[in-house]
Design brief:
By secondary structure, the protein is mostly beta strands. It contains no helices and eleven strands. It is globular and about 40 Å long.
Length: 130
């Protein structure tokens, strides 16, 4: 099992930027695809971005494409999400997650689901004011 701790959330005005970090410990971080999800109260947890173990391939939800960038530093066991041009509709709790052992390539693509990921951080609140 891998332990994940997010940081970097906060309150920002529309058009601003934030950088989320996710520090991993335990299971070999570099071996698995990783993802960022977000969730509003009363809504399903949705994938925002995902990245392969090597960082060579990424996926973005249409709603954030061109504004967000996912990256990872395997030497530092850290996952990042750079969020630019933030909008009020980006307001949510953001979670980082590690894919389950044996998960297929679909976890870095439009078919990714929360159930494909087995380890989760506690979440960090992002609030974008208009």
């Amino acid at each position: 099992q891998v332990q994940l701790v997010e940081s970097g959330g906060g309150l920002v005005q529309a058009g601003g930027s934030l950088r989320l970090s996710c520090a991993a410990s335990g299971r070999t971080f570099s071996s698995y695809p990783m993802g960022w999800f977000r969730q509003d109260p009363g809504k399903e947890r949705e994938v925002v971005a995902a990245i392969t173990w090597s960082g060579g391939r990424t996926y973005y939800a249409e709603s954030v494409k061109g504004r967000f960038a996912i990256s990872r530093d395997n030497a530092k066991n850290t996952l990042y999400l750079q969020m630019n041009s933030l909008k009020p509709e980006d307001t949510a709790v953001y979670y980082c997650a590690a894919a389950r052992r044996g998960s297929g390539s679909q976890v870095v693509g439009p078919s990714a689901r929360a159930s494909d990921f087995g380890s989760w951080g506690q979440g960090t609140q992002v609030t974008v004011s208009s």
